Amino acid sequence: MAELTSVNVPPEQHVMVLGGQGWIGLVDQMGSEITVVNAARVSFGKFRQEMNERDVVLVKYLLENHHNTPLEHVVFTFLVHCPLFVRSQWHRHRTWSYNEISRRYTQEDLEFYVPPEIRQQSADNRQASLPAGGDFDQLHCREIIRQQNAAALAVYEDLLSRGVCREQARGVLPQNLMTTFWATVDLSNLLKFIELRASEHAQWEIREYAEAIKTLIKPSIPNIASVAGW
Q1: For this structure, is 104 an active site residue?
Q2: Which of 103, 142, 197, 207 is the catalytic position?
Q3: Helices 187-197 and 204-217, interaxial angle, to 10°?
Q4: Of 31, 156, 187, 225, which is least surrounded by CB within 10 A?
């Protein structure tokens, strides 16, 4: 399993998700709420070292009136370990910067996501799922997924043993293959990501990461988090 310790992320700066199969770590950060305040007041030539009550009011005003450019001076970098299908949803947010592990270069640490709970398809919403009914065979469905994972991995390893290049052999691996990537974003666009991906309308798996991000960044932006309703 890919490890956060490889980049020395302290325990308080990472969150396990997906029943312990995935995680997200806060690798780096530039700026804080006082950065937002100073950026907003630069036109007046003002600069502060610490937040006061007037600054808190200003932060609330900026958020409520969608004056977002001062937020762009605060930047976060995360290290994310998630299934490929979550990665695909994440990468639709094109204001982020990404660098990802490449299966062209390595075949180490291959692992696959098995949902801790299988959900059923909604009958009236193509993109929605529902908690499975009491008569739904959770164990059997999860075992089918495990078997498929093992079969795909066996085909992949067989192709490699026959001399097939990694960049082609990886094509047989399923969408629930776990991947790891760096992701950097400014606070303005991060808040937009959280609004969309922490919504009850988002898929449960990516909601797990959005909620984890709230936990990771809330200590450094407590007033913004309060206005956002976290």
Answers
A1: no
A2: 197
A3: 140
A4: 225
Residues 6+ apart with CB under 8 A from 63: 224, 227, 228
Q: Distance between CA atoms of 89 and 92, rounded to whole angstroms? A: 6
Give the pLDDT score at 3.
Answer: 58
Instruction: Return the domain boundaries, the chain.
Output: 4-108+177-228, 114-123+130-175
CATH number at 114-123+130-175: 1.20.5
pTM exceeds 0.85, yes or no: yes
Show the 3-state SS of 15-34.
EEEHHHCEEEEEEEEECCHH
The CATH class, in words, for 4-108+177-228 is: alpha beta
Q: Give the burial class of 209: count Cβ atoms within 10 A of its Cβ; 0-12 exposed, 13-18 middle, 19 or more buried.
A: buried
Q: List, for residues 159-178, the tens digit of each pLDDT value.
A: 999 999 999 999 999 999 99
> What is the per-residue pLDDT for 177?
97
Which positions of the chain have pLDDT values less than 50?
6
Residue 105: what pLDDT? 81
Q: How far is CA 83 from CA 74, 80, 89, 204, in A?
A: 28, 10, 10, 12
How many other CB atoms are found less than 10 A from the CB of residue 29? 17
Task: Determine the angle formed by the axes of helices 33-40 and 53-64, rounding to 10 degrees.
Answer: 80
Q: Which of 14, 9, 178 is nearest to 101 (CA)?
A: 178
